[in-house]
Write a structure and sequence with these properties.
Structural class of chain B: alpha/beta
Shape of chain B: globular
Strand content of chain A: 15-25%
Number of helices of chain B: 8
Oligomer: heterodimer
Number of strands of chain A: 4
Mean pLDDT of chain A: 91
Order of helices and strands of chain B: EHEHHEHHEHEEEHEEH
Structural class of chain A: alpha/beta
Strand order of the largest sheet of chain B: 3-2-4-1-5-8-9
CATH architecture of chain A: 3-Layer(aba) Sandwich
Shape of chain A: globular
Number of helices of chain A: 5
Largest sheet of chain A: 4 strands, parallel
Distance between the termini of chain A: 51 Å
Number of strands of chain B: 9
Distance between the termini of chain B: 36 Å
CATH class of chain A: Alpha Beta
Number of domains of chain A: 1
CATH topology of chain A: Rossmann fold
Low-confidence stretches of chain B: none
Helix content of chain A: 40-55%
Low-confidence stretches of chain A: none
Chain lengths: 132, 162
């Protein structure tokens, strides 16, 4: 099976920064493709998202659930059956993705979302020691 | 008047609008005026998918928006009306519904004959003609991508386009 491609689509420089961080932690380079929506029309953004995917399979990671990044991902994936969109991209999500690219995209997408959820925890060490 | 923001933005309902404007103004609903989106269930679903809880979106053709404008403007809560390009906003202006209202220019990107006026704003001669009509039939036209950014009046945009 062809390993799943990862495209990160986000505002400003977030996608590049996340890719750089994920690569520096994992040591796996050249697999994640960052795309910024900065200054792009909807059509240009779709073309940038589509370019690294080819015929898939792919996961398009976006920052906000509503917005041009997710719109572009959904438009690219529409009807393809090989492209899944995951919103709320985070570093734990991307690191897990890099080590599990042989999974089916949808199954992998569900897995990385769970990883992201478990990676977000409240550590209340600033409390008074009594749980407050 | 419940409609507080009239914005031309190629991306319609996106992060900058929902977060940058919507959260700042406390918007409760959006009126998206676009013939193509209004006719597409898929696009309506796409644009509605990430709206904050309790925030509504109405998708209307330009004709339907003109017909229902008073109802949309009399809605409870605070709203924003969005068009993808100056053409649809000009049609609203020509119908008389923008009298006294301030029209905001958000993102219009490069393409065709459009020239860079501001980092987020590219305008073609046709866009300027449409905007002139809007300026004549509304309170004002100015460019500003976010509420915290300085407002650039239409006259300045015209000068920059020369």
């Amino acid at each position: 099976m062809t390993p799943t491609t990862g495209v990160i689509v986000a505002h400003a420089n977030l996608a590049s920064a996340l890719v750089e961080a994920a690569e520096s932690i994992s040591g796996i380079r050249g697999v994640l493709h960052p795309v910024s929506n900065d200054g792009l029309s909807p059509q240009e953004l779709m073309a940038r998202v589509e370019a690294p995917i080819g015929r898939g399979p792919a996961i398009v990671f976006t920052d906000l659930a509503s917005g041009s990044c997710t719109f572009a991902g959904r438009a690219v994936g529409r009807g393809s059956g090989a492209v899944v969109v995951v919103t709320g991209v985070s570093l734990p999500m991307l690191v897990d993705f890099l080590f599990n690219r042989d999974m089916q995209p949808e199954e992998l997408a569900r897995r990385v979302v769970e990883k992201a959820k478990s990676g977000a925890v409240v550590i209340a060490e600033c409390g008074d020691g009594n749980g407050a | 008047m419940a409609l507080e923001l009239f914005r031309i933005d190629e991306r319609l309902l996106h992060g900058q609008v929902i977060v940058g404007w919507g959260m700042r103004l406390g918007l409760d609903y959006y009126v998206i005026v676009d013939d193509e989106v209004a006719a597409s269930e898929w696009e309506k679903d796409l644009y509605s998918a990430g709206l904050p809880e309790g925030v509504d979106a109405y998708f209307l053709s330009t004709t339907e928006c003109i017909r229902r404008f008073d109802e949309l403007d009399g809605h409870s809560g605070r709203g924003a009306l969005l068009t993808r390009d100056p053409v649809a906003m000009r049609e609203l202006a020509e119908a008389g519904v923008l009298a006294g209202r301030r029209v905001n220019l958000g993102g219009l990107h490069a393409g065709g004959e459009r020239r860079r006026i501001l980092p987020f704003l590219f305008l073609a001669p046709d866009d300027l003609s449409d905007l002139k009509v809007i300026a004549e039939r509304s309170g004002s036209v100015s460019a500003r991508d976010l509420p915290s950014a300085p407002e650039v009046p239409f006259e300045e945009l015209v000068r920059a386009a020369r």
